[in-house]
């Protein structure tokens, strides 16, 4: 579909470099593991097993490497801190992608390692290089037991992490993935018991680490790869402590679009615009943490999220808050009716506060914040923000934040903001409209912020007339109640970016900008993958040497 | 909370189990060993475990001629064809039968537990069979794939 596999993996500089370094380092480590076993005269007895033992040792070292790498992309707090400093080097936001690449590699090398060991042990039994049966090694010694356990844990983790299952039942994935704890313990313990040795029997000593390096000749890789595990464990403990700090759910609003807005107070919580956090509601689920984008600006006195009831957790949360699907449906219906009637000064932006007097508001815990690429808005001259559907949430925070900073006259290198919102149906405008209205009304420079809203839904004839009649000569758009007019159909991003580039190059767009300097147009996207691809391709195609278009996206 | 669809999960486990079984069967042709030979077997140095006399039938089918590993490989490939399913099986309704899959997986587990390399395949096949059994008891149904889907990626 579109580009070929070869094109994707080898024809893009960055990806090619990644592939070279990632797979190159794997092959290099495999080669080293093989060579150092094969050339070790102390292990001559084991080398009698020939290829299988060299393969198993090489693959074992590669697996240690992968075991050390697999947790690194999950060190969310560490990543958040180092992110601004390493962004130029590698895309720190693609951490889950990297986690998956390591996992795929791990599955492959586990196959190689296990296959080689099954050959090793049958030959150990036949030649009696060590006086034991294959059965004893497989099911009686630390290496064999932990290895079989790790393989079974991998089966459970990989199968439940498949995107189909993860989307269908997130908690199955969530809980099963915590088997990683036992997996890591198995990994660190896999080489215990002085398995690689030049003596027939293990050489134990009474002091730490309880084996003598005289005769136990393993790679001792656990001494290196245990650190990401320890840091990760520490991070989880820290997150737990941080989550326990006082948090109060102050207010819950339901917007006519069906989105719930949760406003929370947590004095110890500091974040920047465009970040996300985990939320836990013990009443709904005791252990689960769910990620949501923060929609309030750092300057706001509260932390807010907008939640649409689409998944199992969010629906259960709505039920608990007293804003179940039936309530939402009734409200949405009313809002739809309202939208037909409202004139230019309608009231469709209204939302309702939910108090739920019988049960009160539940306790909530929040954990975060975690990084997202949209923090970088203030480093470029032009910000090209694109939100698709509910993917507009981080932009609520960013636009509000821009507004606050504009008031303080502290915008960094940011000169202009182009904001696009591609959305299907009119009622979804509801909650976001208030934010946009505030920001738009506050603009002193009419050119600084341009809001472009695209409605992709097919509209009925009645609605069409309604718009036509109300729109003509009205100061505000009849749908969004903004000064900006709503556009219909899908935006042609390539054409838009092309025009933008031309006006930058001709000096009209950023008056007074030195044309010899490079202008950076940073596009940020959040929303469905199909739209993401379109925006990315448009940005890549439009980029030139003096007007650079960059692309970053936020993952849900 | 989210409904866990057992047959959806069991399918992935079944695929892993049978890929493992095919791979294990291949190696069992090269390195032939009856897994249960330690029962009443005698140790010889060198030479390894010598199976007891009453195991003769398994020795014939695994060590002298690798019949059981080959059957496991063929069965593994068949189950894989059923799980994907491949084009000729897609039109038939048997690829949606959980009972058939449970029977085949248990049979696969029985075959693979007999030879040295197949133990993990046996464990995973049993796990998949348990998954499908849960799917049956919960009354899950596999939807028939819709026609007129067209070829993937062909849509504008």
UniProtKB/TrEMBL annotation, chain A:
Keyword field: Electron transport, Ion transport, Membrane, Oxidoreductase, Transmembrane, Transmembrane helix, Transport
Residue ranges annotated for the FAD-binding FR-type domain, each copy included: 236-376
GO biological process, one term: monoatomic ion transport
Gene Ontology cellular component annotations, sorted alphabetically: NADPH oxidase complex
Transmembrane segments: 16-35, 55-75, 102-119, 139-160, 172-191
Superkingdom to which the source organism belongs: Eukaryota
Subcellular location, record wording: Membrane
InterPro entries found in the cross-reference section: Cyt_b245_heavy_chain, FAD-bd_8, FAD-bd_FR_type, Fe3_Rdtase_TM_dom, Fe_red_NAD-bd_6, FNR_nucleotide-bd, RBOH/FRE, Riboflavin_synthase-like_b-brl
Membrane topology: Multi-pass membrane protein
Pfam families: FAD_binding_8 (PF08022), Ferric_reduct (PF01794), NAD_binding_6 (PF08030)
Molecular function, one GO term: superoxide-generating NAD(P)H oxidase activity
Main subcellular location of this protein, as a coarse class: membrane
Name of the protein: NADPH oxidase
Organism encoding this protein: Pterulicium gracile
Organism ancestry: Eukaryota, Fungi, Dikarya, Basidiomycota, Agaricomycotina
Automatic annotation (TrEMBL), chain B:
Alphabetic keyword roster: Membrane, Transmembrane, Transmembrane helix
Highest taxon, organism lineage: Eukaryota
Protein name: DUF7727 domain-containing protein
Entry-linked InterPro entries: DUF7727
Domain DUF7727: 1-140
Pfam families: DUF7727 (PF24853)
Residue ranges crossing the lipid bilayer per the database entry: 12-36, 56-86, 98-116
Keyword rRNA processing in annotation: no
Lineage: Eukaryota, Fungi, Dikarya, Basidiomycota, Agaricomycotina
